[in-house]
Structure formats: C-alpha cells, structure tokens
Amino acid sequence: MVTAQDAPRGATPARPVAVAVGRPIGVADPRLFGSFVEHLGRGVYGGIHEPGHPSATPEGFRGDVLDLVRELGVTVVRYPGGNFVSGYDWRDGIGPVEERPRRLDLAWKTIEPNTFGTDEFVAWCRAAGVEPMLAVNLGLGDIRSALHLLEYANFPAGTALSDERIRNGATEPHDVRLWCLGNELDGPWQLGHRSAEEYGDLAARAASAMRAYDETLELVVVGSSNADMATFGTWEHTVLTKTIDLVDHLSCHIYFRDEGDLDAFLRSADRLDAFLDAIAATIAHVQAATRSTRDVRISLDEWNVWDFRAYDELKPGRVFEEAPRILEQAYTHADAVVVGTLLQSILNHADVVAIAALAQLVNVIGPIRAEPGAPAWRQTTFHPFAAAAQSAGETVLAATVEGEADASLESVTAAITRTAAGDRVSLYLANRSTTTAADVDVELVALGATGIVQADLLWHPDPSATNTVDRPDEVAPRPLAATLDGDRLRATLPPLSWAVVRVACEPGRG
Ligand code: AHR
User: 368, 392, 416 — which closes off a domain?
Assistant: First the structure.
C-alpha cells in the first residue's frame, strides 16, 4: 500500500494553478449520485442477491454489499435494465419463486431464472435506503403491460393487480415515482429498436396512459445511447418534440474507455461536458420551438468508464448460461481519476442534469465487487464516487481554473459545492497531468472559511493499479496535506490524482 507521502511532485517542476470560486450555478440534486442494477451477468445474482452468503439477510440480499452501497452514498437505483428490459416480462419475476419461469434473455444471451424481480428489488432498495427507478419495456413490450406494472407496483389495494402484490407479500404500495419509458431504443442492438418518429409516438402514448393513472409520476424519455450515434441530436429533437409536455427528463448514456492514449482518456470529462451542453441546447431549442414551458432536465442514467470491447464476449456461439461472469471490469487508478473528473462535470452541469446513474453497481462494470462466499470489496472507482456523494452540498458554485502554463492538457479540473446553511464548502480537485504536480491555490473569498475538516487524496504510482479480493485497499484515499491561510486553501496534487477537501465556513456568508 502506498501513502500520500510517497506521492512525487512529478518529473517537471510543479505548476501553479489558481482556482477561483464563483457564483451558484445550480442545485445539486441528491439524485446526481444514482446507480444502476441490471439483470446482466452477476449484477443481481451473486451481486446484490446471494442467499447462501455468510452476510445474507433473511431475504437473501448480500449484507456486505448493502453496507458498501450505503457507504457509497447512492441515492437512487435504476432497474431492471438496460438492454435486458427490452425483452423482459415483469410478470415472470413476481409470485412464488419456485413457480417462476426460466427464460432466455436475448439481450445478453443468458438464462434468466427470475428468482429476483420487482418486489425483491423494491425491498432491496428499502434495505439500502435508495429510491427505486423502474424502467418499463417499450422494446418488445407494450403499453398495457407497462400500465399493469404501474398498477401492480403503486395502486394501494382492491384491484386484481394490487391484490396480487399484497398476496405476494408487499402489503404497502411500492410508490415508485421515477419511471423510464424504455431503454436505448435508438440503438440497432436494442430488442424492439425503432426510429425516432416511431419511438416518439410510442413514448407519448405510454406517457399519456401512465399519467392517466398518476399525473405526478416523473417520466424519463429515451435519448441517445452515446455521443457517437449517427442520430445524436436529431433523435432528441424528434422525440422531445413529440413528448415535451408529457415527460420530466430526457435520458442519455455515455461510457468512456482508454483506447491506448492515456492523455486522451484523462480528458473524457471534456467530452462529457460537450455531450451535456449539446443535449441541454437541444432541450432549450425544442422548448422554444414548441413554446413549451415544461422544465425538462437531463437524466444521465448510464455513465461510467467501460471498455465495451467486452461486448465481443457476446459474439455468436456464446453458450446461454445463468449469471455468467461478463463485463466484470477491474478498474484501475487511472479509471478512478477519470470517474472523479466525470463527477466534477456532472456537478458542474447541475443546472441542467437532475439525475445521474453510475452504470452499474456490483460486479458488472461496478464500483463494488463480490465473489461467492468472500467479502465484497471496493473497486478504485468506488472512492471518488463515495467521497463526492458523502460530501456534496446542495449548491454548486462555479469553479474557474486559471494559470495553466500548458494549454495542451488542461490538467487541473475542479467542482465546488456548498451546503444550504453555508457551513461547509466541498472542493473536488483533479490533476490530469501524468508528469507534473500542481500547486493549487483556491481563494475562498467571502465564504468565511474557518478550518479544513477533511482533505483526502486518491493517488497511486501505477496508473494501472487495481483493487482485488486479496488487496482490496491497494488504491484508496489517503490524507492530503492541505493548508488554510485566511481565505486561501493550498494543496499540492501529484500527477494523476483526485482529491476532496471539505472546509468549515461561517454559516450565512457568501
Ligand atoms: O450498462 C450496460 C449496457 O449499456 C446497458 O444494458 C445498455 O443500456 C447500455 O448499452
């Protein structure tokens, strides 16, 4: 294990960088710290659910995973997919477990045992202290089935479907507020893939029908699967024009991977900034063109680092099996720094992004890993997410980085939040340079800074270092030597590092 004291100042002299704290730019919705559980690989089975595990709860939930989910600070979890939902019949996952059918899942070419379904998921959410976000099947599914799921989940009692839920053990309605109108229907890989016109019409009909039951639901309409889709931009325009007065959020997904150029990979957050700016501009354009006053926000409900070349695992010839070990990416220290910078980007778009979900949660491209019988552990990417989720205040303040000597790689990035009471400011700082340390000087003017309450650094000498079941803390936060001198906070960020600094302030200032 390495300590922060081991951190070098880099091959070249440290670069001085000033960070200026500006005006409030948005409210950081707690749901920016969401995640995602899909019936995929060992995300559910052997991930959140393992009845035989030593830590298992009476419901068969892994207790050690629940503890880590709480520590991670996740607020909302999307379920059951993902690509999976477009072939899923929710009825297969309810009722007596021994009577549930085993089915082929054609999205991931696996066998779905259906021993975990909607009721188990909502019970798991209650145990984890997170809000459920359910996706309905608008791929191969239809609106009637979506309405039946809504009634099953939310109607108190006295109808066939709500009484069925009660017989299945859930006497109280699940009261799910957040609903996704399908998943990635812009993608040719999606079961039930459609054109933007077809999907826009379908989503409008589904949203109207769901609102006929409950006008107060929060509905998320499908946007683009990534920034490289040929239809990116036009899809959002077409779909939103047809649905703007019926929905609350426009979904988008994006994943980043190291394609052999670490510096380019470390700039992933610049691409996320551009992606979110373009979607926000499209929403504003549709609002203007339709004269709609509806406040539609972005739901970035899948984001992460993911080497999706692992899709190759799904090539023809793959044998259908239950809970296969697929997409179990071992995250590196460099990945953790990128995830930290993506979180900065999300916070810095708090004016337009209402929901964000790190995809996914356990085993499958997740910040948590779990092996049968063994204790679960934190991947490298767990740390920046947990640090931000645990410390973010309600207001995001503008952070401007100044004094960059080398414009070829704008190495230092920042995000800043403040609590509503004004008694804490949290700074999230990254140094994306692989060679040069940064002497960061933050002027906390008019915030009434009185002392540092937390200063942690995520750094490792090896960008490819990972955490494993045998070495679970190889990459972990260590104390950062930060100083507060009046209004000036100073800290040195070693090359390829990410830090969180929390400062106590006089309430009511700023
Ligand atoms: O998160 C893995 C997959 O990525 C999801 O199932 C899909 O929505 C996306 O393409």
Answer: 392
Per-residue pLDDT for the chain (510 aa), expressed as one digit of tens each? 444 455 556 657 788 999 999 999 999 999 999 999 999 999 999 999 999 999 999 999 999 999 999 999 999 999 999 999 999 999 999 999 999 999 999 999 999 999 999 999 999 999 999 999 999 999 999 999 999 999 999 999 999 999 999 999 999 999 999 999 999 999 999 999 999 999 999 999 999 999 999 999 999 999 999 999 999 999 999 999 999 999 999 999 999 999 999 999 999 999 999 999 999 999 999 999 999 999 999 999 999 999 987 666 666 778 899 999 999 999 999 999 999 999 999 999 999 999 999 999 999 999 999 999 899 999 999 999 999 999 999 999 999 998 755 544 579 999 999 999 999 999 999 999 999 999 999 999 889 999 999 999 999 999 999 999 999 999 999 999 999 999 999 999 999 999 999 999 998 776
Residues 361 and 77: beta-carbon distance below 8 Å: yes
Spatial distance between the Cα atoms of 502 and 507, rounded to a whole number of angstroms: 14
Beta bridge partner(s), residue 221: 181, 250
Active site (annotated) includes residue 184:
yes
Q: Range of 110's domain? A: 29-392
Are residue 449 and residue 315 in the same domain, yes or no? Answer: no
**Per the residue annotation, which of 184, 218, 259, 394 is the catalytic one?**
184
Does the Cβ of 360 fall within 6 Å of ligand 1?
yes
> Where do runs of H (alpha helix) occur along 86-233?
118-128, 143-154, 160-167, 196-213
Cα 37 to ligand 1 centre (Å): 10
The reply to whether 510 falls in a domain is: no
Pair (335, 404) in one structural domain: no
Which amino acid is it at 409?
A: L
Q: How far apart (Å, rounded) are the C-alpha atoms in residues 143 and 44? A: 26
Q: Is 120 a catalytic residue?
A: no
Distance CA 163, CA 313 (A): 42
Instruction: Tell me: do 122 and 171 sit in the same domain.
Output: yes
Same domain flag for 211 and 67:
yes
**Residue from 40, 44, 83 to probe ligand 1 pocket by mutation (most atoms less than 8 Å from CB):** 83
Q: Which of 467, 469, 470 is nearest to 382 (CA)?
A: 467
Residue 161 within a domain: yes
Say which CATH number the domain at 468 has.
2.60.40.1180
Among 184, 190, 224, 252, residue to substitute to test ligand 1 (most atoms within 8 Å of Cβ): 184
Residue 444, in any domain of the structure = yes
Task: Give the strand pairing for 353-359 and 297-305.
Answer: parallel
What is the domain count for the chain? 2
403/366 same-domain check: no
